[in-house]
Request: fold
Amino acid sequence: MVKPLTFKGDAKPKKRKRKDVADRDDDETHRPGTDSKALTRTATDGVQDDDSWVTAEVAVDIAGPIILILPSDEPSCLACDINGKVFASRLENMVDGNLTTAEPHEVRQVWVANRVAGVEGFSFKGHHGRYLSCDKFGLLGATREAISHEETFVCIPCPGAPGTFSIQTQRENFLTIADSKSSSSSAVEIRGDAEEITFNTTWRVRMQARFKPRLKANKEERAREKISRQQLEEAVGRRLDEDEVRRLKKARREGTYHEAILDVRVKGKHDKFAC
Reply:
């Protein structure tokens, strides 16, 4: 589910829980083995709430809220107003002018990317709920409420420029910026009628980290791997030596955690009767 966008400096709202839910959670924390579940649940929630921005490296990364950065001299991105007029908006949130750290500072700069069913392409929905489109003359707008071929775009990775894309329309033309003698981003004209891939058709896509498939999977995997010695001892039911702790942590990373727990429990019983 797409969550409301937040920007730097915004106060984060406090999460409120019902009393009965809080009481049930308190009861569960006193049961053996619940610490491990709570730790994993907390870490997974952190992945879902990650609102940082990262660069889309391949087309399959593109999903959720994004910004489309123009290949212009002054850092700027594609934006639209409430009436669907598409324009170049100046980027302000970035570190030392580095486009790989750029983030939006207003909602007009943000588009929601989704795959279009049945075709190899994406739709880009603006903040006002309408889709980016390109007509047969190469003119861009964001006034359509439904998706057709004019609202479908293909993101083609640019050879020799990792992390950049050429955005192709269904008429096999590319989104581009027109040459301008002025350095003002407001003078940059954005069109969709370029016939070849050039520097002016090279776009960069920034997206929220929680929607990036590989990054999301890696964070969830690391969250599952985290477990303390105390949690392991509670799961086994006795104190563990250093070798057993290392073996169980390795088994948790490799996906054989439950089998390893049973082996350690059986070994403990044999040691007890041997004494």
Summary: The CA atoms of residues 238 and 268 lie 8 Å apart. Confidence is low (pLDDT under 50) at residues 24-36. The helical segments are 19-29, 34-48, 213-225, 229-236, 242-254, 257-274.
